[in-house]
Amino acid sequence: VDIKPYSLSHLKVALFSAVPRPHGKSLAHRSELKQAKRIVVKLGSAVVTRDECGLALGRLASIVEQVAMLQNQGREMMIVTSGAVAFGKQRLRHEILLSQSVRQALHSGQNQLKEMVIPVLEARACAAAGQSGLMALYETMFTQYSTCTAQILVTNLDFHDEQKRRNLNSTLHELLRMNIVPIINTNDAVVPPPVPNSDLQGVNVISIKDNDSLAARLAVEMKADLLIALSDVEGLYDRPPGTDDAKLIDIFYPGDQQSITYGTKSRVGIGGMEAKVKAALWALQGGTSVVIANGTHPKVTGHVITDIVEGKKVGTFFSEVKPAGPTVEQQTEMARHAGRALASLDPEQVSFLLPQYGRVLKYLIPQDVFSREGRSSPLIDRLSLSSAKLNSLAIGLRQLAVSSRDSVGRVLRRTKVANNLELEQITVPIGVLLVIFESRPDCLPQVSALAIASGNALLLKGGKEASNTNRILHQLTQEALSSHGVTDAIQLVSTREEVEDLCRLDKLIDLIIPRGSSQLVRDIQRAAKGIPVLGHSEGICHIYVDNEASIDKAIDIVRDSKCDYPAACNAMETLLIHRDLLRTPIFDQIIDMLRTEHVKIHAGPRFASYLTFSPSEVKSLRTEYGDLECCIEVVDSMQDAVDHIHKYGSSHTDVIVTENEETAEQFLQQVDSACVFWNSSSRFADGYRFGLGAEVGISTARIHARGPVGLEGLLTTKWVLRGAGHTVADFSEQGSMKYLHENIPVPQKGFS
Question: How many CB atoms lie within 10 A of CB 452?
């Protein structure tokens, strides 16, 4: 084996006896790819080259950066690369053009240059001219990351001859031991042109004629954990990419080959997707996991390799373990199809279905189906399904049944555009909703009921802490739906899907609604590129006690807002006290009440300055505690309280306690939050308490829906135009018709 820079593309068939690695079992799930220690990265011709002549330097630089980073993490990286022929072709063309230009200048004069013709360049000559330059480029790039490389050039003899094969194996192992990245290619300068032959033969034999089969062979030979094959397509499609209805396959299993229709081979390489799939399946049988992904897309090339190793949903993952149920993509398609049937149910059917669903929930026997050990009390509160919660759910569903009558298909506006041309704006479902919720099993029936009432398909992803409860509640939901033949409209995602991967299904999901911690919401808002997100990242709710507040009202409101359910997003987190109330009975009684309720107090900067011995000073005035803790701060006036809320609040729910109506109205008008209350607990910010029946969450956004989002927030509109052969030309200056645009009254039939 020659340890020098080198390329691979036209290696003639060579047959080898595969030696499966001990305990050679491929990784079953994407999430396990983080465990991959030894990784082979195969760079196809389309990835390495640019326009079939020359190298794609930007792409190569980003790939080198990722490989070096993984190598420096302690992984063992190997690269199988193309590119020598393309690099050599670029160099030879340049030399030929330069040579012709010089000769013409010498013999014909400067003003009579003839058109220069470049002869057809032989591939082996190009490889010979490009191999050293390609390796020099790799060495220069890897040196930037203090990573050493070595070139391995192979020919047929290195695979035919058992001794040479052992030498190759030994050389690669020694390089990996010394923390060197081997860069492997065929010696295209001396190999004969490829000839048609069988590509793969059986379990123990592989014929090598291109980068794909070589990468698979080396991966199995070296007992690699992962083979990443980068090409110019997103992965494996069920039919040629670009054709109608072509779908990217997330996970491919042995035996699925018959469901694939392959297209033409690569525009620059000698293989194609069929060759890649056969090589991938062979490597999979040998115990190496495989991912085929796009290495040319400018938006993902810079992190495609690291994303794959982190287990993200990139490209097509080859797995031997086929899950019992449908994939999340299949679940989404099933939900969308059944959702259309759900939206077409008669209002009477829906109003019958919802109370029936509520009665089933009401008579559930509350019991914990999770371990309390090691869990905080707020988490236990969220996980528990108490009798009170179940009863509230049942009541809410009855409310929803009443308010949902005629909600879908309701006419909002009717306009007579012209004679016999009438326009209507009507309410319709949004489509497919994805609701992601953490440790809140009571969220499942609430959201399911709203999906039923609004005619939306629903995908549910719950936290693992409540997986048993979620499974039981989902079964009850499907039983209720089965009476109308729309069981599949609500799906529970139970596969090992990462939340970030679900957020990438922009062609399948229409709206994401997160229910959980502020960190979860922020992560989803970042990850959901192309899908709208409805929700709030934090619930930093304020109670402002004015200097004209009632003592009894203030104590009751503060107690209820903080202590009724401290883990709720509408619980008080900051108590603002008017400066005049310090060292007065109302202030002392509020503090005594909080201590009696075991509420830990954090002092704001101004409050701390008034005290000789103060509680621990707050680290941030923008904190959501979610427990029996709160911050107390002092303000000079109602306006000062408003300014504080705008600076440190989250636009969720804010309250004023005062007997001065003028002050209260100013507060209600000025505070720019989704919910603003006067003399009432912040805990009223809830869809059930507002009479909405249920809510999917509270939104602090300023478009579509704000505050508790119930049935109305899950509907959108469409325009329906009914005409009689009208054309736009009829309304031109030469036309015979005129626009009327007359509003037609819309009767509100039974809508609550």
Answer: 27
Q: What is the pTM of this model?
A: 0.76
Q: Do 461 and 435 contact (CB within 8 A), yes or no? A: yes
Q: Count the Cβ atoms, other than its own, within 10 Å of residue 672.
A: 13
Neighbours of 597 (CB within 10 A): 13
Dihedral sign, CA of 8, 10, 14, 20? positive
Give the 3-state secondary structure of residue 693. coil
* Residue reference for tokens 């026997």: 365
| Contacting residues for 557 by C-beta, under 8 A, at least 6 apart | 543, 655, 657, 679, 680, 681
Task: State how far the alpha carbon of 209 is from the alpha carbons of 81, 192, 202, 274, 690, in Å.
Answer: 14, 11, 16, 13, 69
Helix axes 57-72, 123-143, angle to 10 degrees: 50
Return d(Cα 449, Cα 94) in angstroms, integer. Answer: 69
CB neighbours of residue 718 within 10 Å: 10
Strands (E), 668-732: 675-678, 697-699, 707-709, 715-722
Q: Consecutive 10-residue runs of the chain (752 residues): their mean pLDDT?
A: 33 33 73 94 88 78 96 96 80 74 62 58 80 89 95 80 90 96 84 50 51 88 95 89 84 82 59 83 94 89 92 92 83 95 90 84 62 62 73 84 84 95 96 89 89 95 84 90 94 81 88 86 87 86 98 97 93 98 94 96 93 83 94 97 97 97 98 97 93 86 87 94 95 93 82 42
